[in-house]
Amino acid sequence: MNKTQSKYLSKCISDLEQMKDELETMRDLFQESYDSKSDKWQESEKGEELNERITNMQSAIEYIESAIDDITNVRGFDY
User: Cβ of 66: how many Cβ atoms within 10 Å?
Assistant: First the structure.
């Protein structure tokens, strides 16, 4: 892999890491909001919707982590 390709992949990894950090922050804020509500509210439609958003954000974070791992493996490949 040449320097240009490696630099481009490093930038992609950096961008994905930043995106992951931002999603983790949002997930944590949503989780704090959810946790501060009563059990009754958590069991309400709004509570279930927020919990689903938290779950979806966690899934997105995991997909980004997987993408970072895959790109890291590509970057380490010499041809």
Answer: 10
Please name the residue that has the structure tokens 């240009």.
4
Q: Which of 53, 71, 57, 55 is nearest to 22 (CA)?
A: 57
pTM of the model: 0.86
Closest CA to 50 of 32, 30, 67: 30
Query: How do residues 31-43 score in pLDDT, each as one tens digit?
Result: 999 999 999 999 9
Q: Are the beta carbons of 13 and 72 closer than 8 angstroms?
A: yes
CA–CA separation, 12 and 29 (whole Å) = 26
